[in-house]
Amino acid sequence: MSKHETVVGLEVHMQINTKSKVFCECSTEFGEAPNSHTCVVCTSQPGAIPILNKKAVESIVKTGLALDFTINKQCTFARKQYFYPDVPKNYQITQSEPPLCSKGKLVINVAGKEKVVNLTRIHLEEDAGKLVHEIGSRKLDYSLLDLNRASVGLMELVTEPELSSPQEALEFLMELKNIVEYLGTSECNMEEGKMRCDVNISIRPAGQKELGTRIEIKNMNSISGVRDAITYEVERQIEVLDSGGKLVQETRLWDAREGITKSMRTKESALDYRYFPEPDLVPFDLPDSFVETLKKELPELPKARRVRFIKDYGLSKYDANYLTSSKIIADYYEEALNILQDKKVAAKLVANWISTELNARLNSSKIDILESPVSSKNLAKLVSLILSGTISGKIAKTVFEEMYEKSSDPEIIVKEKGLIQISDESAIIKMCEEAISESPKAVAEFKAGKERAIGAIVGLVMKKSKGQANPQLVNKILLEKLKA
What we know:
Blueprint lengths: L3 E12 L38 H13 L3 E2 L2 E2 L2 E4 L9 E4 L6 E10 L2 E14 L3 E6 L2 E9 L6 E7 L6 H18 L11 E11 L9 E6 L2 H20 L7 E6 L4 E7 L9 E2 L6 E2 L2 H9 L5 H12 L3 H7 L3 H13 L3 H23 L10 H12 L5 H14 L3 H8 L7 H13 L2 H8 L6 H11 L6 H13 L1
Parallel strand pairs: 12-13
Antiparallel strand pairs: 1-10, 1-11, 2-6, 3-16, 4-5, 4-15, 6-7, 7-10, 8-9, 11-12, 13-14
C-alpha cells in the first residue's frame, strides 16, 4: 500500500446561462468582436451602479436545490480585491458569507462503487475580462484586453477536500456538468470558457487527518486535463517529499502540451482579498415562495431518468447510463422512441443504433448529436423498417450510411434503391437449394456435427440475394433442408 494519500478539492466556475450580464444589460453572447458587449458598468466607469440580474439568482438556487444544498434566504454581496489587468475596477463583486447555497452533496460512481462527495457552497459572482497575449503564431510584447466577458454571471461551486484520485475528480466533473446541463443553468461549454476549474491538491501520510501543503492548479479548461494534471502533480509532490524536500503553498498552471504543471505564484491567503460589504448592492431576503416555485420547476435529473429508462424501457444499466450521460442524447433517444408504436420492443434497438453506429460517426466527424445529419425522426423510421421486416439489419447499415452522408429519409432510400428485404419463401427456398448444392464441404461438416458450418451456406444465400434475403427465413429453411 502507498504510504501517501492524495486529497483533492475542486472549485468549479460555471457561467450562468442568462442573456444579459449579472450586473448590467450587456449581452453575454460568445464570440462577438472584442469589447462590443460593454457599458459603463462592466467597464467599471466611476459612479456606475450595478443592478442584480434576477435570473442569475434563480439559476444559483435551482442548481443548489438539485444538489441537496441548504438555500440561504439572505442574499448579500461583497467586494473581493483583485489587482489584475482583466479586472479594471480592481475588485470583484462576489459573495462571502453567507453564500446562496451551503452544504450540499453529489453522488458519483467510480469503478462500480458509489461515493458521496460533500459540497461546501455555491455562490454568485461576476466573471473577469480576458487578456489576449498572442495573435496567431506572432507573439506580442504586450497584452490586449477584451471586456466582453467582464461581469458575466458565474456560479462558483466548492467541494470539500474529499476526492482521493484523478479518476474521482473526472467522474465528479462529468456528473456535475451533466446535472447542470439538465437544469439549463449553464451551458458548461469548456472550449468557450463557460466552465473552468481550479484544483487544490495536497499529499499527506496515509492515515493522517491533517491536510498536507495545499497547491492550487488554476483555470483548467477540460475535464480530461484536470485528471491528467492531478496525476502529474501527485507524482511531483510525492517525489519532492520522498527526496526530503519541502512543498511550498503556491499556484501552478497546467501546460497540456508538455504534460506538466509550472509554478505561477505563491498562494495568497483569504486575508489578502480584503473582503468588505458591497455598498452598491443592498442585502435582501429571498421569500419562501421564491424558493418553493423554483423547486417545483426542477426538471427530471440524470439519476431519475436513468432509473426510468431501466424501469419503463427495460434497458440495461449500461445503456441507461450512456443515454443519460448527456441531456441532448437522452432527449434524442426519447424523441425517436416516442415516434415508434411499441416502445418496449424498439427501446433496445434504438439505444444500440445511437450508442454504436451514430456515436461512431459523430465521433469521427467531431460533432455532437445536436448537429447530427440523422434526425431522431429518421432514426425512428429506420428502426421501424427493421422491426417490420422491410429491411434486414445488414441492409439497414447501408441505408444508415446514406442517411448520414445526405441527411436522407430511410424510406425514400429503400424505395429508390430497391433494398426491400426478400421474404418470399419460394424465392428463398430456391436460393437455399442452390447454395446447398454449391457447398458440399460445408454440408458434410454440418452433417458431421459441426453446426457452425451452416454460416458459410447462409453467407452464400445472402450473396445470391445481394443481402436482401430475410436472414431468419434463410436460417430456418437451411436447417430444415440440411436436417431432412
